[in-house]
Amino acid sequence: MEAADFVRNPAVWLKGLSASAATLTWGSNFGYAIAVEKVALETLEGVSLEKVRGFWSGGERIHRSTIAAFAEKFAPFGVTCAAMHASYGGAENAGGMTFTRLGHKGVRHESVDAVRLYDDLAADPVGDNFRGSTSQFVSVGAPHPGLEIRILSELGEPLPDGRIGRIAVRSPSRFLGYLEDTAATSSRFSGEYLMMGDLGYLRYGELFWTGRCDELISVRARKIDPSEFEAPLANIRGLRPGCFVVFGIDDRRAGTQHPVLVGEFREAAGVSPEAVALACRAAAVKSTGVTFGDVVLVPPGTLLKTTSGKRRHKHYRTVYQVDGFAGLRINARR
Questions:
Q1: pTM
Q2: Range 217-323 has CATH code 3.30.300.30
Q3: Which of 146, 189, 251, 264 could form an SS bridge with 240, CB 3.0 to 4.6 Å?
Q4: Is the pLDDT of residue 332 over 80?
Q5: Rounded distance, CA 315 to CA 57, Å?
Q6: Given this chain, do its domains 110-214 and 217-323 carry the same CATH topology?
Q7: Distances (CA, A) of 57 to 15, 69, 148
């Protein structure tokens, strides 16, 4: 199925699962969110999803709220929370690395102290009564047999459970190297371990993915992954769900970076581009304690994703640095 066909009509996916009696399927968090938003239940007459024992999410940050919303909406058609799963993989390992276990009651998730997360790269779980700011993470499962995962510090030292570092993998199915690029190949290995471009931490023998190494935004010595802004911005009226990117731009005078948001504006009654920009700033401050140095709103269809549904933060950072989306910006520069 072409990604564009799915975005236009995500019900085709669910109908295909029913018609083929499929038992496993994969999608991105964005894909599950689009299905929740766009699929009208009355269009699924005769559809049964009871045979699907694994709705797997991967490829980008997974939000517990998205998983729960999908299971709840499509429960009348046989979807259960126990069928919702998560995985992690990479092209350099020729496929999946970690998987949550079939038959278990959904995926593990936890809230962690956001201050410790940003300041100390430590994921300290907190309870419902915690009054400080939090970040939520979903387990992407345990490594499959024959594969070992370590979390390494910037100095290449193994980190204990709950400490965030670079994900390193020892695997029999890793790639040999990049074509005609020995320098890039050597940079991806530390002894027997393949160095992934991702950050995460371990707990219960399972991996929790927290972000991409080369997409972190440095704000006054705090390292913030763009995915931290996904949940706060998910329900901003006038901002197309899932159709935004966040990246850091160097501020030489301040000696730090400021986050920039570029998002697609969707017209709605009584909502102006300026009001959407203000709502985005307020949501960012409430969630992360930092605001956007610039909010750029562009027409629908401007921000293309990868074929697997991933946001292209780095690409649009480059576009922004050229002209600030001057020809597409529909709100005044702030």
A1: 0.84
A2: yes
A3: 264
A4: no
A5: 24
A6: no
A7: 18, 13, 21
